[in-house]
Structure formats: structure tokens, C-alpha cells
Request: fold
Amino acid sequence: MRRVTTVVLTVVCVTLLGVVTNVATGVLPDRWSPYLWLAWPLLAFVATALTVVEVRRAREPGPVGGTSAARARRVLLDRVRRYWITSVLDRSLHVEARLQLGITASAEDRRYPWTLRASHRDGFTGILDDRTSVAALFERLDRAMVILGAPGAGKTTTLLELTRELLDGAETDRDAPVPVVLNLSSWATRRQPLAQWLAEQLTERYGIPSAQAAAWVAAGEILPLLDGLDEVVEARRDECVAAIAAFHAQQPLTPIALCCRAAEYQRLRTSLPVYGTVTIEPLTRPQIERHLDRAGPALAGLRAALAADEELWGFTGSPLLLSIMALAYADGPGPETGTGSRRNRLFARYAETMLRHRPHPGYRPEQATRYLSLLGDRMRARQQSIFVLDLVAPDWSPTWPRRDADRYSRTAISIAVGLAVALCGAALAGWLGVAAGPVAAVLTALGLAFGEYDDLTLIARWGRRPEGRRSIQVNWLTDTAEEFAEVLFKSAVGGSVVAGTLAVGAVFGLSGGWAGLLTGLAYWIGFALAALLAMSVGNTVAFHLYLVGPPGGAPRREVPSPALRQRLRFALRATPALGVIAGTLAGLLVAWPRTGADGFRYGLLVGTAAALYLLASVAVGPIVEQWLVRRRLAREDALPRPLRPFLDYAVQCLFLRDVGDGYIFVHRELLEFFADQVTAGKLRPRQPPHVDSIALKDG
Reply:
């Protein structure tokens, strides 16, 4: 259907091209001769439109398959390995603890010391030895299993071990599905059918073209490895399981593996469509003692701490906590640095030890703790497991009212648009053109206030699709027409547009005396139509960008962030077309009672104003708001600016892991620990002199 529409548009444009060519060559009555010059701008516009249509048609995705599909498969395999095996599994806390403490693995020592207990619904059960391959176990459980365990038991590590082995197989067998690790916490944002969610995640997280991703999912060429079922908000967890079950019913031959905490799994009311479970058993005291003995002098500090405090043995059953204890007590037992529960004091000691052993001249330990605490608190509040730069929004500020950044950015952008239009008007129409500047500034401010999809907090939440709505496809013609009616008839903005542009029409019209009132009417209608069209198109574009997913990749620039950079690119492509259309409408209206030269100058002025409004409302406004928010957070010492160097430092300190274009905490429990520092009111940012000091808390 899309290709048919493109062909029809091409035919129409070609027809118009022939017509305006005849007009341009003078095949008209003599009385039309003064207006023949208008044919040339129209000719340029039609030729440009034809070129755009043909370019868009050339860019449409071709058939999925062939060489491009093979290349995309190699790219996906490489990204999964780099994101999850190289960056996470090979740098897991267990491995990093060994490296930092100088522990070398012996021939008898398995990489991960826990025991796996498997059970199949056909009755098979068994305790698996240290040498068992996770991929072989996956095959034994008919390639559909769930990995269970306590917090910190090693569920994600086991899933990534399976990923490594499946990647090795997929790289040698071109018919094997590609294993892809995804975190289920983001599913609850839109609650889509799992196949659609999988395709969008392939695009958002791994940068795979949407058509290719959808084709792979439909063909069963993706093997989903889903982490964090327990991280799905509890009210939506059974709904998520139902979506997984529906996907498995549609594609029963597609392998699947999931991770979930054992307690949350037991509370599910809906059963998962898996053939078996793998339960990670807690470490036993003999296993721990054997591990300590094999490590030799490297774990002397931990052995001394366990000997001095018998209560610490209660935490050694978790591999996560065992690794944390090995690093926290590398220097032996010492005075407690934290407060609260014994577990919290353990995490506090770990944070203090890592920041002391790996100091950074730019971040004091108390600053680093504060930054990580705000990061953890905001991620927990939004049920996000992966942090990306787009997530920073006004509600991250502990003291700044959320609407202030939005208000300041809109004010600055409106003034800038007004000044630019005033300067353009002065250059094109003298002092009369300056009158368009204040009107453009006021209308820009009103249009930005009326906009619904340019809010930085909304963009940052990645909740682009309103809840309870079906999948939406933007129709540019009908949606723009609906927005036009919405602006004109259903809001106060329409009346303001009519009144404001009437002032411009009066200025231009009265300059020619009372006989110029008809001319003033043309100026007024031209400006009003252009303003309404710009607002309508701006709302449609913002809504379209609200629905699409963020771009993939791992850009290093922070402002504008990836999602806003995507909006800026789209706006830069759309503004010339809107400027030409709006300017042509206004110019033709003015050229009829005046002269062609007057119409051209006025059309250029109005087209510039319309283009600037679209650019400001869709992209520049949110970008300025983001800059203000980052600057404010840095002033409050709530987050550093730039942020990415600190995130990389946190990776070095074994608090975070970098995954593609984002970062994750080394474990959910560490995220919870840092987030609790905020909700408990233990950390306060440095306040600007004029701001009352209040506790940092969930906004």
C-alpha cells in the first residue's frame, strides 16, 4: 500500500511539473504576464517534492534476506557478545574479585562455585556436577527453561553462560537462532505482544533495522533470553507471563529461557510455558571453606573477618555477597562504616573500600556515593534496569520544581524565535517586518505550552505509547488536518493566532492608508494560515516521534542525548518543506492584491517563521531544557557534568557495567542499596545559596 501511494504521488507531481513548466514558458493570457514569476518558485517546489518522494522510495527497505540479512546477523551476534559476554560476564563481580585479589583458578576449580538442580516436567530431576554444560542442560530441558534462585545467587551469570555457549553454536551454524539477552523490566511500560516487544528491543537495544527485526522474530530466528522477570512491576508480572505464554503458543518451536527470583516465581498465578526449571542452590559452608582454601593468601582478609564475626557466615551462601565480602574485607576486619541492617553495612563497606582503593581526583567518595544514589533511585522509580543518557529529566533535581526547566527553556526559545523573525522581517520589509517578531515570539510560546509530546520528562520515560491505546500509525495528512482543527477550534491558541496575526496584517495594511485594508487582510490571512499550519505539523511530528523508539548505538555526546538528536535530525529534514509550503501560501495571498516581489518577500518571512517554530517545538526546546537540567544538577552536585566519565569511573569501581549504549548496576541489590540512601534521606545535595536545604527524596 505504501509503494502504491508513493507511485500515485509521483504521477501527480510529474503532472504538476508539466503544468507549471507550460506556465513558466508563458503559455498564458497577456493579462497574467505580471504574475508569471510565481511559476518559478512553484516549479522549484514541485521539483523538490518530486526529488524527496523518489529519495524516500529509494530508501524503503527491500526484501528481507540475502546478503544484508547475513550481514545483520553477524552484527547482532557481535553486539550480543560485546554487550553481555565481554562487558558483563567476563567482567562479572566474581571474575573482577579474582583479578583484583590475585586469585588464580586451579585445575580443580570451576569458574562459578554454585550447584544447579534441574527438573523436567516429564519427571527428570537431578543435581548437576561442576562440569555440566549449561547449553547441554538447556537441550535436556527441551530448550525452554526458567532459571530460579535467591537474590545474588547467580541467575544472570548462568543465563549469560548459556548465552556464550549458544553464541558459539550460532556462529558456526547459520541455521541456529541468534541468542539475544533482553531485560523484561521495560515490557511493563507498553505491555505489547511479546513478538512486537522483541522486535522493538532488537531495534532499540541492538540497532537492528525494524523490518529485519520483525522478520527475524516472526520466523523464529531469534532465541530470546529474558532476564529479570521479577523486576517487572508486580501488578503487571502475571500479564507479562501471559504475553510470554501467548508468544510460545504462536511459536512453540522457538527456544526461550528466563530468569526469575524463586520467591516471585512461586507467587505467579499464571504458569510459564517452559519444560523445566534450573534452581541455583545456595552455597554450603563446605563449598565456601573449600573456595577460601583454594584462594590461599588472597582471601586472608575475608577469612579473618569471618573468624572475627560469625554473623558474616550468614551472607556467604550468596555468590554475589561472597564476592562483595571478598573485596570489602580485602584489608581484613575493621570498624563498620554504615548503619542499618547487617546487609546494608556490608554494602556500605564495599562501596567505601572500592572508592578508597580506586580514588579519582575529580570525584570525592561522598560525591560518588551521592551520584550513584540518585542514579539508583531514579532507575528504581521508573523500573529501569539499564541507564541511558535519555533518562535524565527535570524530576531528577531534588530542589528544582519540575516545570521550571520546561518554562525557562520555552521562554528562551520563544524569545530567540521572535528575534530571528524580527531580524528577517527587517531585512525583507524594513521596519514593518519587525512587527512580525513579537507576534512570532508570543505564538511560539503559546504553541509550546499547548504541545503535549515535547515534554522532556515524558521523552525520558520511554513510555511513548499511551496506555490503553492500540498500536498507532501516524497518517500525516489526516492527523495534520485533525491537529489543525484542534488548534483552531478547541483551544485558546486558535484565538490567539487570529488576534496576533491580525496585528501583523493591520501594520502592513495601514502602511498603505485606508485603501490598504484589503491588502492587510491578505497579510493577516497568510500569516494566520502559516501559523496554524506550523502548529499542526509540529504537533503531528512530535506525536510521531513520541511513538517511535530511540535510536541504537552508543554515542559519546551527552547533550543532545540520542533521542533528542534523533528529533533534531527529523526536524531539520521537515523544516524546509514546511517553510516552502507556508511561505508559498502566504506569498500567493499577498501577491494577488500587491506585487509579485511583495508576495515573495512576505512568503520568505512567513516561511522562515514557520520553519523556526517547527524546529524549536520539536527539537531545540527539549534540547535547551536538557541543557538546563544538566547544568542545574551539576550546580546542586546531584550529578556531574559531563556524566559519562563518572559512569566509566563507576564501572572501574565495580558498581556499574557498560552494556551497549547504557549502563547497569553489577546487581539489582547494589542498585537497591544506593537507592535506599536517597529514600531514607541520608544524602543531601549541595544546595545553591538561594535554595532551602531539603532532603533528597523520590520526586
